[in-house]
Design a protein that fits this description.
Order of helices and strands: HEEHHHHHHH
Strand content: under 5%
Strand order of the largest sheet: 1-2
Shape: globular
Distance between the termini: 68 Å
Helix content: 40-55%
């Protein structure tokens, strides 16, 4: 090897690491967290039922926007310009690929799965098992450079989810409404705290004094950006819990707690 831990000018240490602490625990927990969400979200996306509560107007984010004739009556808030879909295509297929792309190319998630899934490297002072590294210059990692474009679509989807939550409020107020609203607020916080959003707001400005509005936006986004990692995990949890609640109410497993 001419680079990395096996380079000629590096110390010859046969052990992968000399660390004696549980350095493997954070990557393991990250893997388990990501795997839990991927398995649940994948299963629910293809389930094709229990995603709409007609009585209360609850629509799970995993199926929004629902745009085909396969959608249950009332769940297609933006009409049904698409015909019926075969069972192997998720009803939320319009937004899901872009949201997946937005998450996969997110700066925080790159850090998370580079360390845990690809082990590149798994922890500080722990040698990675790969013999070479090309960075984000070749497929598939070169796709990471499309993060800004996925961000634009994520903004549109956030607007759609906000509209869904507002529509549900026209049916009254229940626990499901609060869950939908909290999820939407946190999704907006995660989306706007994105590094691309911060760069769009003020990344190319040379004189902040000449652009006070953009400077103010950049300042606010920068404060939110500090919490981007926490929001990344929190929104995974709220998406899962929101969908789970809608599924349980739609299936009749539980009753929605109504306030009025």
């Amino acid at each position: 090897m001419t680079s990395g831990v096996g380079a000629p000018n590096r110390a010859r240490i046969s052990a992968r690491t000399l660390r004696t602490d549980r350095w493997w625990l954070p990557p393991l927990l990250t893997n388990l967290g990501l795997l839990t969400f991927v398995v649940y979200a994948g299963a629910r996306s293809f389930m094709g039922k229990w995603y709409w509560v007609e009585e209360f107007g609850y629509l799970t984010p995993f199926y929004s926007p629902c745009l085909s004739d396969s959608c249950l009556p009332g769940s297609a808030h933006f009409g049904t310009p698409l015909p019926e879909l075969p069972g192997w295509i998720p009803l939320g297929f319009v937004a899901l690929p872009f949201l997946l792309g937005f998450r996969l190319t997110c700066y925080y998630y790159r850090k998370a799965y580079y360390r845990s899934v690809w082990q590149s490297p798994p922890a500080c002072a722990v040698a990675e098992p790969h013999g070479s590294y090309s960075g984000e210059t070749k497929l598939p990692l070169i796709v990471q450079n499309a993060h800004r474009y996925f961000f634009y679509v994520a903004l549109v989807v956030s607007v759609v989810n906000t509209y869904d939550a507002i529509v549900a409020l026209t049916y009254g107020l229940g626990l499901g409404n609060i869950i939908l609203l909290v999820n939407v607020v946190l999704l907006w916080a995660y989306t706007l705290s994105c590094h691309s959003c911060r760069h769009i707001a003020g990344g190319r400005l040379k004189h902040f004094s000449k652009h006070p509005v953009r400077y103010r936006a950049w300042t606010l986004i920068s404060k939110l950006n500090v919490r981007h990692m926490g929001l990344a995990w929190t929104t995974l949890a709220t998406l899962l819990l929101t969908d789970l609640y809608v599924m349980l109410v739609a299936s009749g497993a539980i009753s929605d707690l109504r306030f009025f």
